[in-house]
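The records we work with from here on pair a chain with its fold. These numbers are not coordinates but entries in a learned vocabulary of local backbone shapes. To see the layout at work, look at the sequence and tokens printed below.
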Amino acid sequence: MTLRPLRLKKNEDRRLRAGHLWVFSNEVDVRATPLTDFEPGEPAEVQDARGAPMGTAYVNPRSLIAARLVSRQRNRPLDGDLLRRRLARALALRESVFPGPYYRLCYGEGDGLPGLVVDRFGPHLVAQVTTAGMERVLDDLVQALRDTVAPESLLLRNDTSGRALEGLEPYVRPAFGDVPEVLSLEENGVRFQVPVSGQKTGWFYDHRMNRARMGAYVRGRRVLDVFSYVGGWGVQAAAAGASSVVCVDASAPALEWVGRNAELNGVADRVSAVRGDAFDVLGRMVADGERFGAVVLDPPAFIKRKKDAQAGAEAYRRANQLAMELLEPDGILVSASCSYHLHRDGLMDAMLRASRRLGRDLQVLEEGHQGPDHPVHPAIPETAYLKAFVARVG
């Protein structure tokens, strides 16, 4: 199979040679190989300015990221065979690390499959396809997942906002099988049920190791879980021996699932819920003189775009300061961020500034990040997004 070439401008091959997988539209020599000649998702051979091959990619002329490399070999497009090989390699890692079939099975570029995320809930899979190149091979992808995992069902949750950047329409539909309305999973020995219509794929496996880390610090403490969603942190805190847990979220349906998951694990008598905007609820609790032995802050991304960095950093500082005001002396703060544009030093700085405004001492005890089912590609900083600190506040 001979692929159409995609030629780069002079010196624009350096990032690819350093290990990156992306080609931006302004790096393409459009006089030699016009991007408009390509169909969205079409495979191509990426070449340097001299015409030397650098690997095989899929192209999207509509996107800022004009091409994503899928192989360093020539004429090795994304097809069923390559998908099966990469998925089998991803599966082998997860099965070697985790005791049960509950994890992120595929994490895009981190697993060599740009544009694909797959979460596993035992016999059921939920996938998100976010690029035209992956959408183009959707039938091959579905078959590769059946061949590799043999799941009972596969749901395509292709309703993410990122699809619009690729010129793709959003949709949600089952690829095959009877997709249940409720998905079951187990994490750190604690059982959960989540709605298949919940946020993103229904669960956030990335914090698994950080939630396990939290367990050693909450025994016998009153815990506040802010931005709780369905209780991933709060219910695990109760299961780890917290004396009581208060979960805060703006979503009434999410808090109903907190109650169900607490009941599922026999800790409902120690878990309660408060609905409302997190900042408003924390402010009221401070005014009312509430105190907790531990506070967990795991907010949604306050910084979604680089231009929002300053305002977002201030939001992290405010949230951490309110959390610290609610902590007893020598209380435990678990503070996290999933904002790629807030680096780990930025989160640390937000915590430090919050503690200094209150005149309280801050000791960072442990640092965490995303688990091994979200492998970081060392040449692509965007694949490393999750930060978490466990700290003691004097």
Summary: The chain has a mean pLDDT of 96.
